[in-house]
Write a structure and sequence with these properties.
Helix content: over 70%
Distance between the termini: 58 Å
Largest sheet: none
CATH topology of the largest domain: MetI-like fold
Structural class: mainly alpha
CATH class of the largest domain: Mainly Alpha
Number of strands: 0
Number of helices: 12
Length: 290
């Protein structure tokens, strides 16, 4: 008589085990890494500089046409530590950009709120606003210089003109994004116009305004530098023209690097302000992809 083995029932997974998500894959961990750009950006810059150096050495290109990276960084170090460059050019461009951005915020956000609130006002002014934006801004620079002179005033107007439209469009979209249920709640609470704006319109519109400011600060920087380039006596744009006329190519590359760092710094400040002002909004929360 042979002994039979008793079969044990297979163990069933518990509810916690069934509901537990699978461990993230390598690609998912890479996508969710918030410090990824801090690793990849220096690596890409280093690869670009190596390729630049190799190209200059292999092709034996004239240093007058394309200087090597070390010559550009040497000129950049001398420029960024020069008080004359800071006081005369960087400060002038900063003043023009900030004043132009402030003017664009006042006009763009103000008109955007009115357009978002009043469809009739939107139908009246939108064709005129769009018409002013489709005109190439470079064609208007000589007019502003003729009317306002070669000083900062003309550059402030050019910067404001370029930064105005993103703020206007984003603000009007933000006002229209307020849910109807929020309007019904304000009506039920018999809220005044100021309370409606402060408790309903502003919280929903602020993310759109700050997103518009990120684009507006870049456009204002471009407008101020282009205005200086075409008709200015100070500023980074004028500084680049002077270096070009003096055939100082290495310093011209350094001036371009200063412009890039200038715009990136202003953009980073606006982005940081957005994270501080609306920490509750999903646009500033870290992404978690499945």
């Amino acid at each position: 008589m042979t002994a039979t083995k008793e079969r044990r029932p297979a163990s069933t997974p518990s509810t916690d085990e069934l509901l537990r998500p699978p461990p993230p894959t390598w690609s998912q961990r890479l996508r969710n890494n918030r410090w990824l750009s801090f690793y990849t950006s220096p690596l890409l810059i280093a690869l670009f500089l190596v390729a630049w150096k190799i190209y200059v050495e292999v092709t034996d290109l004239s240093r007058f046409v394309l200087p090597p990276p070390e010559a550009v960084f040497k000129a950049f170090a001398a420029q960024i530590t020069d008080p004359f460059v800071w006081q005369t050019h960087i400060w002038t461009t900063f003043y023009e950009v900030m004043m132009g951005l402030a003017l664009a915020i006042v006009l763009g956000v103000g008109l955007g709120l009115m357009i978002g609130k009043s469809p009739l006002f939107d139908r009246i002014v939108r064709p005129f606003i769009v018409g002013t934006q489709v005109v190439p801004k470079v064609a208007l620079v000589p007019l502003f210089i003729l009317w306002l002179g070669f000083g900062p005033s003309s550059k402030v107007v050019i910067a404001a003109l370029l930064a105005f439209f993103p703020l206007l469009i984003n603000t009007s979209f933000g006002v229209r994004s307020v849910p109807g249920s929020m309007h019904d709640l304000m009506t039920t609470l018999k809220a005044s116009r100021w309370e409606r704006f402060w408790r309903a319109d502003l919280p929903y519109t602020m993310p759109f305004i700050l997103a518009g400011m990120e684009l507006a600060v870049v456009q204002a920087t471009i407008g101020a530098i282009v205005g200086e380039y075409l008709g200015g006596d100070q500023g980074l744009g004028r500084y680049a023209v002077n270096l070009q006329n003096n055939l100082q190519v290495d310093k011209l590359f350094g001036a371009i690097l200063i412009m890039a760092l200038f715009g990136f710094t202003l953009y980073s400040i606006v982005t940081g302000a957005r994270r501080l002002l609306i920490p509750w909004h999903e646009s500033v929360q870290p992404r978690r992809r499945p």
